[in-house]
Design goal:
This protein is α/β, with parallel strands linked by helices and 321 residues long. It folds into two domains: 124 residues, NAD(P)-binding Rossmann-like Domain (Rossmann fold); 175 residues, 2-Layer Sandwich (Dihydrodipicolinate Reductase, domain 2), CATH 3.30.360. It is 31% helix and 21% strand. The chain is built from ten helices and 13 strands. Strand 12 and strand 13 form a beta hairpin. The protein is globular.
């Protein structure tokens, strides 16, 4: 019998993409509430407790409330919000993060989907920390740019809705200037760092796709690693992975630019090591779709693991606009 899956918040940006990835599958039964009843607490409670697996695509407070409505011990939950990413009792839903994480996700009843920026950051930094190329107490900086869909409906309206009071035509803008971004705690914890990173995010005037970058002064690091050392550590960490690939030194050297929309519609992430051994400087870069591996694709990957289904089901083909 196919497992029943309920998306609470299926009308939002992430919920819609997850729904599109799941709606034609025959190995699950996708269930939903009539639109007119989505705000009725009793209707949501009934649906939350009748499903085998629930995906929460809600604001943080609403996600916490939804978890509180789950009374059945048999219901498994994936939360796509920020609410539970560092909470005890929740498994961080980044299967490729370590040798044991995939099994942890598969066996968990409560999985917190990673944030889009942290997915790129952790993928770049954690292997270097574990290889002792980057000290845990190193003051790490991360710069990133995302498409505006990452900010949800309010940011989408800012860039697309000419009738919105916040509408803007700017091509690129910084935000989180007080450095109090909600993704920093999960970056800090799951990258294995002793200090929170300095996070400098930005949004561009395009819908989706992102670049996450960690610059490093290699000569200042205790081991003074070369570019090849960084690339080799990343390659060892993700060798054989289906959704994460590490560019070879030759592939990285052949590039003189990088398109943040390059992996749109996919659940893939590509990692690069750019820089100069002569200058002793490196630019570690992760390319991914903030709505793919950074959100909906990751949720489907976690769902597959939790339900014992092939991990790549529903993720083989790009999700076209």
């Amino acid at each position: 019998m196919a497992a029943k899956v309920f998306i609470d918040g299926e009308a939002g940006t992430t919920g819609l993409q997850i729904h599109r990835r799941l709606r034609d599958r025959r190995d699950i039964e996708l269930v939903s509430i009539a639109p007119a009843r989505r705000r009725e607490k009793d209707a949501r409670r009934d649906m939350l407790n009748s499903a085998d697996l629930v995906i929460l695509c809600l604001p943080d407070a609403a996600a916490r409330e939804a978890v509180g409505l789950v009374e059945s011990n048999s219901v498994r939950v994936i939360d796509a919000s920020t609410a539970h990413r560092t909470e005890p009792g929740w498994t961080y839903g980044f299967p490729e993060m370590s040798a044991t994480q995939r099994a942890a996700v598969a066996n968990s009843r409560r999985v917190a989907n990673p944030g889009c920026y942290p997915t790129g950051f952790i993928a770049l930094v954690r292997p270097l920390v574990e290889a002792a190329l980057l000290p845990r107490d190193w003051p790490v900086t991360v710069n990133a740019v995302s498409g505006y869909s990452g900010g949800g409906r309010s940011m989408i309206a800012e860039f697309e809705d000419e009738n919105s009071p916040s509408y803007t035509k700017v091509p690129y803008r910084l935000y989180a200037l007080t450095l109090a971004h909600k993704h920093v705690p999960e970056m800090h914890r799951h990258a294995g760092l002793a200090l929170p990173p300095l996070f400098a995010p930005a949004v561009g005037r395009y819908a989706q796709g992102m670049i996450v970058e960690v610059p490093l002064q290699l000569k200042a690091l205790p081991t003074a690693p070369k570019l090849r050392d960084l690339q080799a550590a990343l390659d060892r960490a993700y060798r054989g992975e289906r959704f994460i690939e590490v560019a070879s030194p030759a592939q990285a050297a052949a590039l003189n630019t990088l398109d943040p929309e390059g992996l749109n519609g996919t659940n893939r992430m590509r990692l690069y090591v750019f820089g100069s051994d002569e200058l002793g400087q490196a630019r570690l870069v992760a390319l991914l779709d903030n709505l793919g591996k950074g959100a909906s694709g990751a949720a489907v990957q976690n769902l597959n693991l939790m339900l014992g289904l092939p991990e790549a089901s529903g993720l083989e083909e790009p999700l076209l606009p």
